[in-house]
Amino acid sequence: KTPLKQAATSLSVLTEIQPDCQPLTTPPKPKEIPPADPWTPTSNLKMLISAASPEIRSREQRRELSNNTSEVLQAKHCLQEHLSGDEYEKSQPSRKEKSLGLLCHKFLARYPDYPSTAESNYISLDEVAEELNVERRRIYDIVNVLESLHMVSRLAKNRYAWHGRHNLSKTLQALKKVGEENKYTQQIQMIKKREYEHEFDLDGERNEEMARPFGSNEHSEMSFVELPGMEFRAASVNSRKDKSLRVMSQKFVMLFLVSTPQIVSLEVAAKILIGEDQLEDLDKSKFKTKIRRLYDIANVLSSLELIKKVHVTEERGRKPAFKWTGPEVLPNIQDTKLEANSTTCPPPISESITSKEQCSKNLFPSKGKQNFTRHPSLIKLVKSIENDRRKIQSAPTSPVKISTSTDQTLPPFPSKVSQVPAMAKQEGQSKKAKEMKMKLSRSALEGELPSPEAIPRPEPPQPAAPSQQPTLTPQLGVCPPSHSSVSPVILPHTHSGVSYAIYLHPSQAHTVTTYSPSFMLQPLPCANVTGIQSVNSKVLNKLTTEEGDNQIATDNPTKSLTAKERPTLKAEASSQRCLKRSQALQEENLIKRCKSDEESLDTSVTFFPSGYLIPLTQCTHGNKTSFPDTEKAAICSLQCTTYSSPIAGVIPLTTSDLKAVNIPITPLNIMVSPTSLAATPVLSNSCLNSGDPSSAPNPSSSVLNFALQHVGLIPAGVQVPASPVLQHKPVSTQPENVSHSSGNRNPQEEKYLSLFSLPKESQEPQTVTENFFRTPGGPNTVSSLPAHQDGTNRISQGTLYIPQRKLEVSED
DNA sequence: TGATCCCGCCAACGT
DNA sequence: ACGTTGGCGGGATCA
């Protein structure tokens, strides 16, 4: 059965790429079949082209495809050349044409990003291997990493189920969480520090310090594969103990999610991954092997557009690294985001399911997808739920230890084994309850929202269902939905086809709902820093739009739908470039201003904690949940103590708490500066924040996480070294994270986009400063906007950043 | 050259 | 015993 290496026929080759979603069934393209020998180089090229073309066709702009695309294009060129003088067939496919990245693209092209729940997308390794004409071994590489992201799950022997990106955000959240728990951030710094030291003192004996394992608390070998929530892998058929690739892939991703400038160099990643298991064996060959593997993983992740390759230039030279380009991962909250313009963007559908913890307002969980796109979805929902349930039941019983996310409380996802039983239990109530709930929520919604269009997702009351769908959102129970004020409002745009996005501070959200849109204009006048920004952004926006750029917000609605189903890739936000520039400028300034060093670092460290107020409420809720019981109990208590001070009314420094609102009224995207809006103190926000699906990640939770880290850190005895250890990243870098991918843009991102719409990002190298000193206010403000994305940023606002090293990141 | 990473041997596993 | 998975690292390619 193993596919013969070269046996594949050209026919099969032609097959791939159908935009259509049905995978296995894709009928062979009738296209022309080269009469002659199937294996001429030409045929290969054709194959490549065919693979590439769909993407090309799509309006791309996005440099996004970056490597892969370019490769394809190159291949194409080659083809042309060859065609003209095809006699001497070039050698075979050329290494590039066989690259894992390309292969992965082809693989991904066969399945929809967001497969409908109903349909079962099965993957047969044999078939795929045959059709793509590669050895099965290669498919394993791809599938393994996809599996680590829960984009596929193994069903049985030669079978996998395709989930697409539905679970992605949940998975990423989980990974982020685990990463945080593992203190990867610290580990990274540690490594950097070491390197740094090495640079200076060449003697570099890796003695004492080097050898010691990171942080005092050995996060034991939590290196297991975690199954974040959802996927319950087919119990029975679990294969060999997961060893590397899968785990490695997850860890690799964690590094991105945890590190601030979301850039991770291979070297660092390899060290961390190695270090984790074995203590230091600086085995060179081992290192090399690790790197090799990382390339494999990186290729797949690149194809998924989650990362992209860049080069980091330090004094030492240029090092290969990767930058996260995937969706921003919110802290635990869930993100039901309110999609401001669901129309335009492919909905992040699955988005995570929220944790029930939040009171979210999920009432309006709009996951964009269904809300606007299709109603009948309800039915589907139910179905999917059932499906999920089924899965759960079948979940493996083997205990997996997952330190991570398992919270017994209401885990955002039902994953851990331990949870399984609970879930099963729920089953009973299951459907019916859900349905009822749905109804309720729906009605509630309708009452609130003027337009019937928005269909609220039904929420399971409890912890629920592991459904992959976004559907299950938060529970009503916690927070009565009734509060429009609290929750972000989505106004379905009824009239004009155009969707608008308005971002408001949570506090104002209700206002919006309640009042006429006219009020929207008010905020604009506000002049704080942010306000200024917003103005600029507006201008920018306009410009961009005119250019015909791919402004997501303005794009035509129809497109989104299509896009959703299509495997194609989205381009990167055009805005990046601008952002980068601005960042660069800022950085420059900053750098000039501060050249401090280690000392400063110390300072910063010290200051860190101070300056933030954390809303109490949240602490209780979300946080609690977030910690795993036992082990972290201690920490937890600590945290609670720390944070419990009643500061409910306080608003986090960050300006970022914006809410997105979709309003039909004005055709413009109006950005309200958060700050201005923020002027009004937020009421009890626990609910607000946490619940708000739309943008802000739950601040408190983020804070907690952050705090956790610190707590752990400090007590841990890991004193913060004077060196480059602290790395909080300036928000500025964040913009890069804007996701282009089809569906996963979250509101925040949207906000971002709107704020800065810039010409698409170029490939020029950008310079990034890892740590710099940041002053409140001032030019940096801009950068702070995106800050709310994670707690860290939020916190960091008051912090000082010291320029540590300047890195140049260049893209290929 | 160094960065990438394809290839496929072959061991661990499942059945 | 045989087929499936998938570590692993040599060494070919690419830049």
TrEMBL record:
GO process annotations (BP): negative regulation of DNA-templated transcription; positive regulation of macromolecule metabolic process; positive regulation of nucleobase-containing compound metabolic process; sprouting angiogenesis
GO molecular function terms listed in the Swiss-Prot or TrEMBL record: DNA-binding transcription factor activity, RNA polymerase II-specific; RNA polymerase II cis-regulatory region sequence-specific DNA binding
SUPFAM superfamilies registered for this protein in UniProt: Winged helix' DNA-binding domain
Biased composition (Low complexity): 465-484
Region (Disordered): 20-43, 389-484, 548-567
Gene Ontology cellular component annotations, sorted alphabetically: RNA polymerase II transcription regulator complex
Compositional bias of kind Basic and acidic residues: 428-438
Biased composition (Pro residues): 453-464
Domain E2F/DP family winged-helix DNA-binding: 95-164, 240-326
Major subcellular location class: nucleus
Segments of skewed composition (Polar residues): 394-409, 551-561
Keyword set includes Transcription: yes
Entry keyword set: Activator, Cell cycle, DNA-binding, Nucleus, Repressor, Transcription, Transcription regulation
Location(s) in or outside the cell: Nucleus
InterPro entries to which the protein is assigned, alphabetical: E2F, E2F_WHTH_DNA-bd_dom, WH-like_DNA-bd_sf, WH_DNA-bd_sf
Domain of life: Eukaryota
A Pfam family per the record: WHD_E2F_TDP
Family statement drawn from the similarity comment of this UniProt entry: Belongs to the E2F/DP family.
The protein's name in its UniProt record: Transcription factor E2F8
Organism: Calypte anna
